[in-house]
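W.,

You were right to be curious about this one. When I first looked at the sequence I had no strong expectations either way, so I just let the prediction run and decided to look at it fresh. Below is the sequence, 266 residues in total, followed by the output.
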Amino acid sequence: MGLAFKHFLPPLYQQILPDELLRLSIHETKATCDSCIKVPQYQEDLKCCTFHPFLPNYLIGQILLDEKSKPSFITETLQHKISKRQYALPLGIVAPVRYQVEFNELKSQHFGRREDWLCPYYDQTLNRCGIWRNRGSVCTTFYCHSSKGSKGKNFWKVALNYLSYVEMVLCEEALVHLDFSPRQVSDLLGYINRFDGKSSELKTDSMSLKTAKNLWNGYFDDQESFYIKSLEVVKSFDRKQMKESMGDLGLNLTAQMMKVGEIWKT
C-alpha cells in the first residue's frame, strides 16, 4: 500500500500544490530514515544527515509556531543562529559560507561519516530528524535507494527540481509582499550553494553586524516575527495564485512530475 505524495511534504503545501500531484501513491520500502541501509558505510548515529540544509523563510515560521506548543532543542538552535548572525537571512537559513565551500569540495567517502558536518536540526537523542514535518526539498527527496530502482531515483531527482523551485517561488513571494526589492532578493540568493567566499566569510560562521542589518531591510531586530509573517503570506495563497506565481516553468516542472510519477501506478 502506497503513501500519498502529500504525506512526504510539509502540510502547508496541501492547499497550494496541484491535487493530482499530491494524490500520487508512492511506495518506498528500501530506504527508510529510521533504519538506514547505508550502515556501516555511514555511521549509524549520523546516517545521511551530514548536511546543513536550506530552510525557507516560511518553513522557519511554521517550525517556530509548532515549537511554541511543544518546545524542543530546535527552538534554541534557531534562536542561536539568529542571535549569532549565522546566516539567518530573510530568504531563510542557509549553511555558513565556510561550510558550503568546504562541503562542495567534500569527497563522497566522507559523507555520512563526519560528525562535524551533522545537520544542526538532527535530534541526536532520538537519532532522527528534528524538523521532519517541515523539512526542506533536499531532505524530502533524498533516497539513496528506491523500490523502483533507477526509475525511482529519477522520480526523486525530478521531485527535487520541482520542490526546489516551489521553495524559491514561495520565498521570493514572501519577500516581495514584505517590501524587498528585486535587487535585495538577488543579493540574498547569492548566499545559496556557494563554491567560494571572501576571506572574512571563510574565517567565521557569523556575518558582520553591518552586512546582516543591510540584508534584513529593517526587520533585523525582529527576525522571528518576520519568518512568521512569511508563513502568513504563503498560507494566504491558493492553488490558482500558486499556479500563476510558478509561471510556465512551473507548469513544465509539474508536467514532468506527473510523467515520471507514472512509475508508481505500475
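Here's what jumped out at me. Residues 3-265 form one domain. And, maybe more interesting for your project: The longest helix spans residues 149-177.

Coffee later to discuss?

I.
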